[in-house]
Design brief:
With 178 residues, this protein is mainly beta. The protein has a single domain (23-171), classed as Distorted Sandwich (Ganglioside M2 Activator Protein, Chain: A), CATH 2.70.220.10. The chain is built from 4 helices and 8 strands. Strand 2 and strand 3 form a beta hairpin. The radius of gyration is 15 Å and the shape is globular. The structure holds 2-acetamido-2-deoxy-beta-D-glucopyranose (NAG) (5 copies).
Length: 178
C-alpha cells in the first residue's frame, strides 16, 4: 500500500478537509489556535450542525503580513485508549504545491477544498482567508470505523503560526449500501 498516495495532504492557508455530506463521515470537533497573533488572527473555527449526521466546518482567519513561505505538518490519529498516530504523518511545502500542483496527496486535499475556500491562488497569502460551510467529502480511502483526529500545524518561514485540529467519526460504508 502506498501511504502517500492514499493519504490526505495539506493545502495552504485553508484549514481542513473533511466534511460530512456522505453519511459515513461526521465532523465532531474543530479547534484552531494562533501561535503568533501579530501574523495570524483566528476569528472563527467551528462546526455547524445541520442534522444528526451532517455538520459543516467554517474557518475565518486573517493573515496580517504577506506569507511567502508556507508549509504544513499533517498528522492523523485514531482513537484507541487515547489518540494514537495512524497512517499519515508528513510535511508539505504548500507554496511549492500551489505552483506545480503535482503532489498526489496535495491534489486530493486541494480538490476537496477549492470550491469552499479562498485557497485558489498561489503564494503569498494575505488578508482574510476562509473555509465556508465545508461539508463535501469524497474520501479516496476506506478507513476502519472509528474516531479520528487530524492535526495540522501551519508554518510561515518555517515557524509555527497556527494549528487546526479536526476530529471526525468514520463509519465504514454501511449506510450507503443498504
Ligand atoms: C441521517 O441519519 C438519519 C437517521 O439517523 C437517516 O434517516 C438519514 O438518511 C441520514 N442522512 C444522511 C444524509 O445520511
Ligand atoms: C493541535 O494538535 C497539535 C499536535 O498534537 C497540538 O500541538 C496543538 O496544540 C493542537 N491545537 C489545538 C488548537 O488544539
Ligand atoms: C510573528 O509574526 C511576526 C509578524 O509577521 C513576524 O515578524 C515574526 O517573525 C513571527 N514570529 C514567529 C516566532 O514566527
Ligand atoms: C471573517 O472575519 C472578519 C473579521 O471578523 C469579517 O470582517 C469577515 O466578514 C469574515 N468573513 C467571512 C466570509 O465570514
Ligand atoms: C481558480 O479556480 C477556477 C475554477 O476551477 C480556475 O479556472 C482558476 O484558474 C483558478 N484560479 C487560480 C488562480 O488557480
Amino acid at each position: 500500500m502506498d501511504y502517500k498516495l492514499i493519504s490526505f495532504g495539506i493545502i495552504c492557508l485553508t484549514i481542513f478537509l473533511i466534511g460530512s455530506e456522505a453519511p459515513s463521515v461526521k465532523l465532531t470537533n474543530a479547534k484552531c489556535e494562533s501561535y503568533n497573533k501579530s501574523w495570524v488572527i483566528m476569528h472563527t473555527c467551528r462546526l455547524k450542525a445541520h442534522s444528526r449526521n451532517k455538520t459543516s466546518l467554517n474557518v475565518n482567519l486573517t493573515v496580517l503580513e504577506p506569507a511567502y513561505k508556507i508549509s504544513a505538518k499533517f498528522k492523523m490519529w485514531k482513537r484507541a485508549n487515547g489518540y494514537k498516530p495512524f497512517l499519515f504523518d508528513f510535511h508539505l511545502d504548500c507554496c511549492e504545491f500551489l505552483r506545480r500542483r503535482n503532489h498526489p496527496v496535495g491534489k486530493i486535499i486541494y480538490n476537496l477544498l477549492k470550491d469552499s475556500s479562498t485557497v485558489n491562488h498561489s503564494c503569498p497569502y494575505m488578508g482574510v482567508q476562509t473555509l465556508s460551510d465545508f461539508h463535501r467529502i469524497e474520501l479516496p480511502v476506506v478507513l476502519p470505523s472509528g474516531e479520528y483526529l487530524v492535526t495540522f500545524i501551519w508554518m510561515f518561514d518555517g515557524k509555527p503560526q497556527f494549528s487546526s485540529n479536526i476530529s471526525f467519526t468514520y463509519l465504514e460504508d454501511l449506510w450507503t449500501r443498504n
